[in-house]
Structure formats: structure tokens, C-alpha cells
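Anyone able to model this chain together with uridine-5'-diphosphate?
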Amino acid sequence: MAITHVPISPLPPERFRDLLGERYEEVAAAVDRAGEVLGGRAVWHLNSTAHGGGVAELLQSLLAYARGAGVDARWSVINGDADFFAITKRIHNRLHGWPGDGGELGDAERAHYEETLEANARELAPTVRAGDLVFCHDPQTAGLVSPMLGVGATVLWRCHVGMDLPNDIARGAWDFLRPYVQPADAYVFSRREFVWAGLDPEHVWIVPPSIDAFSPKNQDLTPEAVTAILGVIGLSSPDDATPAYRRVDGSPGRVDRRAVIDQQAPLPGDVNAVVQVSRWDALKDPIGVLRGFVGHGPDSAHLVLAGPAVEAVSDDPEGAAVLTEVRKRWAALPAPARERVHLACLPMDDISENAAMVNAIQRRAQVVVQKSLAEGFGLTVAEAMWKARPVIASRRGAIQDMITDGQTGVLLDDPEDLEAFGRACTELLGDPDRAARIGAAARQRITERFLGSRHLVQYLRLIEGMPSIRG
Ligand code: UDP
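re: yes, here you go
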């Protein structure tokens, strides 16, 4: 058992000044207050992976700005064996209302879950002090709430997943988790609809997701850099331009690694591209995207399905199986369709480099899709909207908070309706003016509501609201 303490390099919150204009005042006031509010307290964030997925993405940037604001922010990643992550993935799927692997959540699973988290708690206990604030993220760390309360910390459980209309499967997962979650000082959900029945509303906070406008994933890239990056990873034909981006700290970076790509030929420069970037997860429905695009979508456009190299995402045991299935479906396509579909597994050896790859792929897209069957966050949607790309996404989870149908994107009422999905792609590609209008409105929406600066201010308010801090 070994907890990983993820290094955090501070970033200056002043970066937001130009972007936010007068709205930066609120951020500046929060930065001024933060030191006083927290005193000598450390603010811990506990989760189950340092890279891959939305939570890691969020922590990477938010904690860097928190450090830049003078907060002693820390990030620790718990450890567990394959059985532990199979159990927590089962809980994750069920919180989305899906049976997942169909396995049990009984006494044996509970015992293994508790045993794993007790071992993690023993490792954390010597460094977490009474008075510290501890954010436990998602089901994987819910079992740490009580041990962290036990050392005298103020503990917040942050839930990033959920469904708008919970079913019995989801309620079953709540029942499993409730004894761990209930004692927390606060429950923080991404949207009101995700809040569980039976949690004291006095302790519930709503904090929507956000993205970092300046990260390698979202920073501006020149068209030349986009083409060069796609050439290096092997998605397009190589060219002589430099595949350049800026690292998190602003220093120059360059994409050097190839991706593992299944394709008949490189993506031509002059075709429309429809892109989905996601973990290889059944709930992201990559197979549905492939089938809907090929069966009902535009005739001449290409589809890119991109995700992380599966071995890299430690808390997601199902990735390899989903990817294998997607590859099988791709290989079985008739040749003309296969030529228009590209599968890309992006190396995760260097997180900044991986982010620059995602950035370039999203910028190459004329349309970005996120056809999730269930979705908590949908950070990929925010990322594409920030890049002024028109997004077609499922009317699920927080996606609905970002996209107003027909204005800031296109919502799919029934993500399993492949015909409607294909038609939406064809229509949007066929009307570039509408696509551009939607893209511009999308960027505006993200600027106003979904940047990390808003998230940081909300976290500070939340911390100020804790009785232990109010005194
Ligand atoms: N992502 C990434 N590299 C990849 C695939 C995905 O960095 O190869 C990122 C993606 O850009 C986004 C996050 O993983 O920031 C996924 O977050 P989202 O909320 O969309 O879904 P989750 O994976 O948390 O269910």
C-alpha cells in the first residue's frame, strides 16, 4: 500500500485578470482572504488517480491556482488492488444507474472496501492534522471520511457523478456508500439533481465543474501547431512545423510521442472531422458513436475516437475491454466506412503532452461529440466549447447546464437514438454558419460560468461556511 502525494507547482491566479475583466475583482478578493480564512490549515484532496478522467483534470489545475493564492493545498492519491477498483468501478457505474459488471455489492465487497481504505487511512493519519480540511472525492475515497474526522479534520465529500432521475440501481449504490458519506461535514455535488435523498440539505453544496483556460489542454494553439501535433502522433501526415505548446508553468513544450492509431490511412487535411475524446468507458458509448456515425451520419466526413492509453488509467479496470470491442467493431466495418474512422490511444507518459494532443484533436474537429449514456461532468464538452467548437452531446448530467439546445450546442434527448445522432452530425456539418454561431456562443458560455476561477471562489465560500472555520 502506498499513497502517492502528487506534486503541485503553484500558478498565479492573476492569469485570470485579462480574461475576466472586472469579474476578476471577485477572484482577487478571494485570494486576499484565503490566507486569513485558512490560517495554518492544509487543504487535502484525496482521490484515486493522478491522471485520466475529469477529477484528476480538475485537481491538477485548481490546486495549482490554490497554491498560487497561498493555500497549503495537497493532493494524495489512494491505492488499492484490482479487486478494490473493480468494486469502486461497480459503485461508479451504479451511481450512473448502470449495472456495470453486474457483480455483487455485499458483505464481502464491503469488507474489502473498508480494509483497503483503513490501510490508506493509516498512511495518511500521521500527516493530516486536526483542523485541516479534507476533500474526499467520489466513491473511491468515501471510506476515508470517518478516519479523517477521527484525526480532527473537517471533511467534505465531493461527488462528481450522479443521475438526474435516480433508479433502483443508483439507490443501491447510495445505500452502500451512505454509512461512509453521512458523517461528513459537507456533501458537495456537481448539480442539484445529483443530490441523494436522505442527506441533510443544510450540509449540501452545489459546485459545478470547470476547466483551466490556460492549461496545455485548453490554451490557444496555432493552426500550424495543430497540424504538426496531429502529424507527430500519427493521426495525420507529418509535416515540418514544430508541434509546440506551452507547459503548465508557461515554459515551451513539444509533442514527441506517437499515439497508437488504428486507421487505414492518415486523416486528410481537407475533410470535416467529427471527434469524441473520452476514457474507453461503455458509458461514453464509443461503439454507439461509431455505429451512429457510420450508419446514419455524413457521407464524407471522418470520425476520430480518441482516448487514453488504457493501461495508464489506474482506477478504470474496464478500459481495455471496451477498447478491444471498439477495435473489433472498427475492423469489421466495410472498407469505405473503415477508411473514414480513426481510433487513437494517446500516451499518458507526460500529462502535459497528452493534454496538448487532446487540444489539437479537439481543435481539428468541425464538430465535437459526447454521446455519453450517462454523464456526471462532461469536462470534454466544456473543453470543446471553450475552443468555440459546436458540440453535439447527450442531455445528461452537467452537460445540460453548459448547453442550451440550439444555442450553445446541440443536445441529444435520447443518446441511444443513433439515427438522431447521425442526423445531428450531418445537419451541423451541412450548415457552417450555424456551427460557427453555436461555437461562438459556446465559448461565451464557458467564459462566463465554467472557468476554474469561479470554482476556486466557490470552494473558498464553502470552506468559510464550515462551522469549524466560522468558529
Ligand atoms: N482526457 C485526457 N486524455 C485522454 C482522454 C481524456 O486528458 O486521452 C481527459 C479529457 O480531456 C477530460 C477528462 O479526461 O478533461 C474527462 O473528463 P470528463 O468529465 O469528460 O469524463 P470522466 O472521464 O471524468 O468521466
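The first strand starts at residue 4 and ends at 5.
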